[in-house]
């Protein structure tokens, strides 16, 4: 029987600063961590570098949750859809740079 891997989503601290979230990463009881690519924790090259450094030091394995605020892939507006898809592509790129084992995206309330 396969033993499930238990991870933790950083969604619980989405209202905190990115710096505080990275400090929390060093105190987790599991090496499997979901990073939320949205809000105060939206990913950038610099943040990916920071997360990679912490991940190597603490043997963390990341998954990335796609942005979800104001994302509607069913938008009838072509300019809005194009902008949203670019944002999602950036998130996938950041997940790749983090060597994330999964990128999580699911439809929202209106998609």
How is this structure best described in words?
There is one protein chain. The protein has one domain (7-104): Rossmann fold, CATH 3.40.50. It is built from 3 helices and 4 strands; from the N terminus they run βαβαβαβ. It has helices at 18-25, 45-58, 78-97; strands at 7-9, 32-36, 61-65, 103-104. It has a 4-stranded parallel sheet, covered by helices on one side. The longest helix is centred in the C-terminal third of the chain and has 20 residues, at 78-97. The chain is globular, with a radius of gyration of 15 Å. 18% of the residues are buried.
Mean pLDDT: 93
Number of domain units = 1
**What CATH architecture do you see?**
3-Layer(aba) Sandwich
* The CATH topology: Rossmann fold
- Silhouette: globular
Beta strand count: 4
Structural class: alpha/beta
Determine the number of helices (DSSP H or I, runs of at least 4 residues): 3
Oligomeric state of this protein? single chain
What profile does the largest beta sheet have? 4 strands, parallel
Distance between the termini: 36 Å
Compute the gyration radius: what is it?
A: 15 Å
Provide the β-strand percentage band.
5-15%
- What is the CATH domain class? Alpha Beta
Poorly predicted residue ranges: none
């Amino acid at each position: 029987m396969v033993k499930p891997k238990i991870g933790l989503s950083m969604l619980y601290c989405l209202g905190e600063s990115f710096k505080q979230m990275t400090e929390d990463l060093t105190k987790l009881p599991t090496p499997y961590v979901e990073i939320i690519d949205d809000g105060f924790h939206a990913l950038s090259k610099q943040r990916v570098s920071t997360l990679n450094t912490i991940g190597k030091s603490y043997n963390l394995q990341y998954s990335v949750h796609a942005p979800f605020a104001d994302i509607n892939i069913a938008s009838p507006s072509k300019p809005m859809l194009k902008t949203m898809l670019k944002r999602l592509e950036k998130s996938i790129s950041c997940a790749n740079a983090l060597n994330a084992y999964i990128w999580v995206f699911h439809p929202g309330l209106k998609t």
